[in-house]
Amino acid sequence: MLFSSYVFILLFLPITLIGFALCSPAGTRASMLWLLIASAFFYGFWNPIHLPLFAASALINFGLGRFLRTSAPKWQRNAALAGGIAANLAVISYYKYAGFFAEVFAGLTGAGITFDKVILPLGISFFTFQQIGYLVDTWRHQVRPYTLLEYAFFVMFFPHLIAGPVVQHNDLLDQVEGKQKLKLHTRDLAVGLVIFVLGLMKKVAIADSIQPYVGNVFGTAAAGHSVGMTSAWVGVLAYTLQLYFDFSGYSDMAIGLARMFSFQLPLNFNSPYKATSIIDFWRRWHITLSVFLRDYLYIPLGGSRCGPVRRYANLLITMTLGGLWHGAGWTFILWGAFHGGLLCVNHCWNAVKKHFGWGDLGWAGRTVAWGLTFVAVVVGWVLFRAERLETAQSLLASMFGFVDEGAEPVRKAKTILVGLLALLGATVLLPNTQQLLARFEPALGWKKLAEHIPPAPAWMAWYSWQPSAARGALLAVGFVGVVAMLTRVKEFLYFQF
Amino acid sequence: MNPNHADDVRPYRSFLLAFVGTSAALLSGMAALNVVVDPYTSWNSRVFPGVWDFATSRVGKGEIFHAYSGETALVGNSRVMLGIRGGAEGSPAGDDAEVPCNLGIAGASYGELQEILRCCLDRPNIRRILFFVDFQTFREEYQFNESFSLSRFNPAKAPFDHLCDLVWNYHTSQDSFEKLGMVVRGIPADFTATACPIPERQCAKESFAVRTEKIIRNVTAERGFQYSPATVEKLRELIRHCRQQNVELVLAINPTHATFLETYWQGGTWTEYQRWARHLTRVVQEEGEGAVALWDFNGFHQYTTESLTDANGKAVTGVEWFWEPSHYTCALGDRMLQRISGAPGADPNFGTRLTPETVEGQLATMEAGHDLWATRHAGEVQLVQQIAATGRIGFLQQATHAEVQTAAAPAAEETVIR
């Protein structure tokens, strides 16, 4: 079920909220059970065929977790952890990567191996990572004992179920620990509603509106035609913005939905296009994935503890595998490696700056840094979106003027480009959803995060959200506006990852 | 968790009440508007008369089909929509002839036609499908027009979503407002379910020659157009399903005016047209085994060769059998149906049943007919030549793949219908 669908907004969500309120007097277990049933329905609504797989995966990981908490000999615990991780990776590999690996193997050896496409279970990349994280933390004895209900609730809670944020077990379950009752709170309901509707607007009104330009330009390049420079920039900028508004809109909806039930999810986006370096970018883009990769891959590989060469190698490995996580294809692998390379360059530059004692380079330096970062990210998105390397190559050549004459698949491309630049300007200059709601702790661990996120400037005080009837009515107008546009909604881009 | 719980809860409550109240009021208002105005005749509210523009849109056609209880579906593009009588009533009382359901949609892509045919086969009451085809339709074009996605033909659409779209979607609301505007301005409500649509509104303003030029510039097949053999092969599946379900299937090639056909010669696609006709005939013969008829109404004959000028050389405003060169009138549509059904009084010289035995003769007749027509209508040939000389036969000729995908359907629709 999509968050941005009639059935979710008009039926599922109100019924789930009412059921949650009704279960509240019966205690925490009843409320969690209700949310678990609702989440199973949410997951199975689209394609129930994968619900048993999901349930089996949760049960097996829970069982493994119980074993890892015992005082069994170390080798047995190590073997159980390795087996658990391998099993999780085997499942995701079968569904997501088997076809790609078979293709690569066939290409290298000339063997006639084919692999029929299988339907990818929704959210498999997310729930696999979350469960691997749980196993590793249990092995490290960093997990309190959970009941099966608690564990199932952590894995299946519908706001984060399909496309993240990548939630860690303690992120969610620490919020129910020791509670006698879970209930609806008026304040959380209001704050969650604002975050949800703003996310819905981002997705429906912005991301889906610019999607046709992306399809036109990438489709033309994929068909083997050269694209003119203006259209190429329109297509690539449109994708840059579409991806951000689509995924951050989804994350906002997830955070808002959880908040309606008085749960907080971790922040996933913090205005990534305001980043002035690639390191900064990865602290702002898909934050929960970055944290996961750091904690469960980069650091176990040695992180920065084994000298600069190992550090850069670890960065490259981590980012390349991060690219592969996004999809089974060379373009994703290359995209990951490209970002790994950029991170290495960034760390080198920081080392040079430190060596020569260069401090802040002033606003001019920051502007140049922002521009370089943004262009590098945009180039990366070309690799990310293109289905084949030739398509990416062709578009990059068009963007940087290496094509004399190309088709202009976007009508009034210059006007559209100006519009996209204006949207980019707003994205970069305006405060984001979290800043708008800063005083209401819009995400998990907000207080810690807020130290790095400046509040909205004073001249934009009007922008800060306050609860009032007038703002409720205004939000309702926007909400009804997006409800009227729901049919044209495309799937969330991150569903495919 | 739960920050600010010490705050006064009243402003939050006011916020929530205002949100819920305003949302409910706005959504109720939109629903009332769309149900009362009923642009697609979905609710049978009859407060305002049906308006052709909306009732024959993709959404409107989906609603007509939903309400249809008869046995015959007419499938095709705008040629069917404008040229074949059909409605939603099924078998009207006192009338022996069953009224077929006209599912012709403007600028239909091949993918859309496939979905409509699938819907027909899913409906047990449909026992007969008349599929009107064109050379240009057979291209790899599987995308849906946005309004097609809104319609009941969209295979991915759940009934609940459709219901919500009919009351809340902005397209529906926009069409409701437009329909209200047309009613207020006194534009005739010319849609009746069984009568032929009346495109005179569009045709009355200019001469047939002007319409000819516009059509040739805009909606003919592009220069060097090559049909997709895969799309013809897909018909095998349709024919097999029809035979399995005992649904009678008739295919018919739409007639077009001679000036339109001339573009095949000027645009260099005549050879490709012949290849397509032979392929189509072979597929129908192999899968249909004589049980599926393929009629060809195209060619240079008395119905398609009416002159653009009268005896004094003055441009005519209209001709009897065509609204403009690519769309025939209902009078010609009636004759096609008569011929297909073998009704008494049908013109035996109009339409050829294509089989492997007749297809070469039909193509030779077309070629000879063309040569004869070209010598007698030098002015019309010159008109097409002039357009060809400007490099503008077919708006798709230099378009990219992506342009074709996005522009084809709306552009055709605008030119023909609006």
Structural account:
The complex is a heterodimer of chains A (497) and B (418). Chain A is globular and about 70 Å long. In chain A, helix 2 (28-44) crosses helix 6 (148-156), helix 4 (74-109) packs antiparallel against helix 5 and helix 13 (307-326) packs antiparallel against helix 14. Chain A has helices at residues 6-23, 28-44, 51-68, 74-109, 124-139, 148-156, 158-161, 169-173, 186-222, 229-260, 278-284, 287-298, 307-326, 330-356, 362-385, 389-399, 413-429, 433-436, 446-450, 469-483. Chain A has two domains: 6-184, no CATH class; 207-449 and 461-496, no CATH class. Chain A is mostly helical and 497 residues long. Chain A is built from 20 helices and no strands. In chain B, strand 6 (322-324) and strand 7 form a beta hairpin. Chain B is of the alpha/beta class. Chain B contains 18 helices and eight strands. The model of chain B is unreliable at 88-96, 192-196 and 394-418 (pLDDT under 50). Chain B has helices spanning 10-37, 52-55, 58-67, 78-83, 110-122, 146-150, 159-168, 170-184, 200-203, 208-218, 229-233, 235-244, 258-266, 270-288, 330-341, 359-376, 378-389, 401-417; strands spanning 72-76, 101-104, 128-133, 248-253, 293-296, 322-324, 327-328, 352-353. The longest helix of chain B is centred in the first third of the chain and has 28 residues, at 10-37. The N and C termini of chain B lie far apart (58 Å). Chains A and B meet through helix 1, helix 9 and helix 20 of A and helix 1, helix 6, helix 7, helix 8 and helix 18 of B.
How is this structure best summarized?
Chain A is mainly alpha-helical. Chain A is built from 20 helices and no strands. Chain A folds into 2 domains: 6-184, no CATH class; 207-449 and 461-496, no CATH class.
Name the features.
heterodimer, A: 497 residues, 0% strand, globular, B: 418 residues, alpha/beta, 6-stranded mixed β-sheet, two-stranded antiparallel sheet, 18 helices, disordered C terminus
